[in-house]
Structure formats: C-alpha cells, structure tokens
Amino acid sequence: MTQDLSAVAWPVRTDRLTLRPATLDDVAALWRIRRIPSVHEWLGHDFSDEARFAEMMADPDRLTTTLVIELDGAVVGDLYLRVTDAWAQSDVAEQARNTVAEIGWVLDPAHEGRGLATEAARELLRISFEDLGVRRVKALCFADNEPSWRLMERLGMRREEHARADSLHRTKGWLDGFTYALLVSEWSPGPSSAGA
Description:
alpha+beta; Aminopeptidase; eight-stranded mixed beta sheet; globular; GNAT family N-acetyltransferase
C-alpha cells in the first residue's frame, strides 16, 4: 500500500526551487532531460522513445510518485517519492503501514554543480519525515553511479548494502548495487530546507 501524497501542501518551495507533483503537461520537459545520454545511462527505464515515456507517465501509479523540480519556472529535473509499508510480522503489520519512503532524483546536467540536486533531495527528506511522517527513507543506485551515491552521503544517508553484481545494466552487464538509508531519528534539516 502506498500513501497518498495529497497530505503535502503543494507546491513546496526551497531557497531556489519549487517542487510539485508532475502532470501530463510535464511529460515533454521530463523526457527531454531523461533522454540525455549521461542521465539515461543510470535510469531504470529506457527513455529513448517519447511515446513510450508518455504512456508510462500516464500510469496513475507512476504519475503520483513523480515530483517536478522547477527553477525560475522551468522544469530542471524530477524526484521520485514512494511511501510504502515496512516489512513486519503479520500481528504487527498495521503498525508498519506507510513508514518507509523510497526516493530518487534526476537533474538536467546543464544545472549540475550548483547544489540544486542536494537542495531538492534534502527537501524530499523533509517532506518524507515531517509532512508524511515516515520513519525511514531509502535510496538505491548502481555502485558505478558515483554522483548519485555521493549525493546520498551529502544528505547524511548511510550505506547499508553493497550487493555484488545484483543489478543488470543495459550496456554494462551485471553491476554492484548500493542501498542507502536514513532514519527520522538521524535526520537533521539542512540550511536549504523550507522547514515545517
């Protein structure tokens, strides 16, 4: 079961960015970013075809887990936020509902090097912990995707798993994968968070 993100007062603003739920009107801008080779390299889906991407984004489950990152009114990337249940024994499963968030990010390379991905992801942690009330946030990536795991570390996330050759990459074959996580008790809002 996933939690409805309507509990958040959208749009959310940080020092420089606006975060909001994606709409079908965002598909062209998001596809333009996702088809850039350095971005496409690490994404879990093949975004070489705009029609296929539009069809995927039309799926309500996908659309409701995608947040747009805007800078000065222009789409510069997107975030992934999916709230789920933690694993639990059946007699306490109700207490584990909607306690875990998985997050991810995509940023247009033209805007790299300015701390925008960190600012957006830090706000995503705040939304997860404060607005949605989860107790744990996790993120996954290929071990070879150094910019992604370096961002996780800047956010204060801890590497919990280094899985050997567990992730199949479309051109590189079997690669190692990393899982990072952070508990609400470990989290500290950063300077670019909008606050509660």
